[in-house]
Amino acid sequence: MATKSRSSRSRSSGTRKRSSSSKSSKSSGRKYGKKAQSKISKVMREYGKGKLRSGRSGKKVTSQKQAVAIGISEARREGDKVPRRKAA
Q1: Residue 39 above 80 pLDDT?
Q2: Who's near 16: CB < 8 A, 6+ residues apart?
């Protein structure tokens, strides 16, 4: 009975190298800075209580997405660490 020896098969030793672009290109793992996070959570608390109003018109904000957008734009205006806007 002829059997193939295991040495003829190529196997990796189990340790793989990670690609260099996985994390090293980012400045840090956190997308939003601590100040930006606190600003957004403050705005979301206002939204939850029903006190959040939009810019010029002063209408009550009813959308959760809109509330997050307001928090992000306020943080961006203050210069907090927030990801860039996506190009249209």
Answers
A1: yes
A2: none
Rounded to whole angstroms, how far apart are CA atoms 15 and 3?
28
For residues 82 and 35, give the distance between their C-alpha atoms in angstroms, rounded to a whole number: 10
- Altogether, the residues listed in the chain come to a count of 88
Q: Are 66 and 54 in contact, with CB atoms under 8 Å apart? A: yes
Q: Is the pLDDT of residue 2 over 70?
A: no
pTM above 0.70, yes or no: no
The answer to whether 75 touches 44, Cβ cutoff 8 Å, is no
> According to the 3-state scheme, what is the secondary structure of the chain?
CCCCCHHHCCCCCCCCCCCCCCCCCCCCCCCCCHHHHHHHHHHHHHHHHCCCECCCCCCECCCHHHHHHHHHHHHHHCCCCCCCCCCC
Tell me the C-alpha to C-alpha distance, in Å, between residue 11 and each of 3, 57, 78, 86.
18, 66, 54, 43
